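Quick one, tokens below:
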């Protein structure tokens, strides 16, 4: 029939459909929806509200919305509702305050509420969307505890450079109380001369926020009393309700610098002592050595075999001591005779080292394989010492198999790691650290000559260049000595 297809009926269907759709949407949005009339009576709730507050729908509909508010807050709520009704507008509720809801079981739930006035033909209502922020608050609390517990100074600064969080360590380092710092510009913690520059850096960070140490070598903080001190700072961007903030961890490195300085000074003194002692010892030793030899030459034919043997022991002892002193002197010179690192082609240096080892190479019949090697930042004379010692050891501590020594290098980030590999007698891993200590040896001098200074020199040289040296067992039963050195910056 034509009447069935009248526009009115279609309209009613459409209306019913959109009504159902509306109900479904309201029902299943992930936040709580609550509609309240002008008298404060609940007119509509969705299932998230039921879940959040623990009431069934029919307990809520028609009741006062105040049943969902802790008693101590209802008075305040009534006033606020009144003022909202007088000037209704779309807005979040209680900006800057934490809102609480009351559950059926009497417990409280932290919530965030957005308010929307709606006018229908049945009167004016307020639609409130309610979000349970328990989890978010827990996360915030955990964050706060973490920040507070950090032994480093922690400071959060908003996009405008205002301090929004500080921990106790910051109070201690800078001598300000928390109350004095909150809301202040972070500039207050900087020497006045750096403030303008810091502003630029902050802008830069905001444009490209990423986790990193703060640029610049000598960062300085300023205490409340105006004194300044060296700091180390790490920055992490943090997404907060108020936009991207910067979390800075601050370490007062004054004490560390002091210890480093003291250590450097006592090291220097020790080096000077070793240098002077070994230098000055050489002179009397030469006297002993030359007179013992003179004795042998001039009175040799008048001495019995015992006396001749004693003289040989004395000469042997003297020459060992001369070797020791020469090694000690070489060790102490690593620090005092050092040159600035320069870009150095390692294959040229290895070539020099092999030339000075040519006698040992010839006598041992060793095969030395050298890969193509990179250019590194190093004092070339010292790198030669390292290669001479390591390749020399690889030859000296050869085993039964025909000796093969392999020299190579691999790139590791901003450094190169060199390796000197042999198929010799190997090293018991329990001595991996000890062999780098001066005068420490694992073998009897009669079997393998040496003073135990070579690796100590290598370690000192490599560490001076900011690198590391270590040993590992080699797959072919011998040892691999490895050390890292800075690559040439691009
Ligand atoms: P030295 O060679 O004068 O003994 P080093 O400091 O060079 O002193 O080496 C210390 C000790 O480490 C050596 O005595 C030896 O026991 C062990 N060592 C060093 N290099 C090797 C190697 N390539 N293979 C086996 N042992 C080694």
């Amino acid at each position: 029939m034509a009447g069935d297809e009248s526009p009115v009926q279609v309209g009613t269907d459409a209306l019913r459909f959109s009504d159902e759709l509306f109900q479904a949407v309201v029902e299943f949005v992930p936040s709580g929806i609550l509609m309240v009339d002008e008298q404060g009576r609940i007119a509509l709730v969705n299932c998230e509200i039921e879940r959040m507050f623990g009431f069934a729908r029919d307990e809520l509909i028609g009741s006062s919305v105040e049943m969902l508010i802790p008693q101590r807050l209802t008075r305040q709520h009534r006033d606020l509702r009144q003022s909202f009704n007088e000037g209704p507008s779309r807005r979040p509720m209680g900006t800057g305050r934490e809102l609480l809801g009351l559950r059926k079981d009497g417990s409280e739930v932290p919530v965030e509420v957005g308010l929307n006035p709606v006018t229908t033909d049945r009167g004016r209502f307020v639609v409130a969307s309610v979000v349970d922020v328990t989890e978010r608050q827990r996360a915030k609390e955990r964050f706060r505890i973490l920040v507070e517990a950090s032994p480093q100074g922690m400071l959060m600064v908003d996009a405008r450079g205002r301090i929004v969080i500080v921990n106790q360590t910051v109070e201690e380092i800078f001598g300000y109380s928390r109350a004095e710092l909150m809301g202040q510009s972070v500039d207050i913690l900087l020497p006045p001369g750096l403030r303008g520059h810091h502003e630029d850096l902050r802008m830069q960070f905001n444009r490209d926020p990423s986790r990193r140490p703060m640029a610049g070598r000598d960062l300085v903080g300023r205490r409340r009393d105006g004194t300044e001190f060296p700091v180390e700072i790490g920055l992490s961007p943090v997404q907060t309700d108020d936009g991207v903030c910067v979390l800075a961890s601050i370490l007062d490195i004054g004490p560390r610098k002091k210890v480093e300085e003291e250590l450097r000074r006592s090291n220097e003194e020790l080096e000077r002592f070793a240098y002077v002692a070994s230098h000055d010892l050489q002179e009397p030793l030469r006297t002993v050595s030359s007179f013992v030899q003179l004795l042998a030459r001039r009175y040799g034919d008048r001495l019995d075999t015992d006396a001749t043997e004693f003289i040989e022991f004395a000469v042997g002892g003297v020459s060992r001591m001369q070797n020791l002193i020469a090694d000690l002197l070489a060790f102490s010179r690593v620090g005092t005779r050092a040159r600035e690192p320069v870009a150095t082609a390692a294959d040229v240096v290895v070539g020099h080292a092999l030339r000075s080892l040519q006698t040992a190479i010839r006598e041992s019949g060793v095969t030395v394989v050298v890969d193509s090697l990179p250019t590194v930042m190093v004092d070339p004379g010292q790198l030669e010492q390292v290669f001479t010692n390591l390749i020399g050891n690889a030859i000296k501590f050869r085993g039964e198999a025909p000796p093969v020594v392999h020299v190579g290098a691999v790139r590791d980030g901003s450094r190169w790691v060199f390796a000197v590999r042999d198929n010799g007698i190997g090293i018991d891993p329990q001595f991996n650290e000890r062999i780098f200590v001066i005068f420490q040896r694992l073998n009897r001098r009669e079997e393998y000559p040496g003073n135990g200074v070579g690796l100590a020199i290598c370690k000192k040289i490599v560490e001076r260049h900011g690198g590391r040296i270590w040993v590992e067992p080699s797959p072919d039963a011998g040892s691999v000595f490895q050390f890292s050195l800075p690559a040439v910056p691009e």
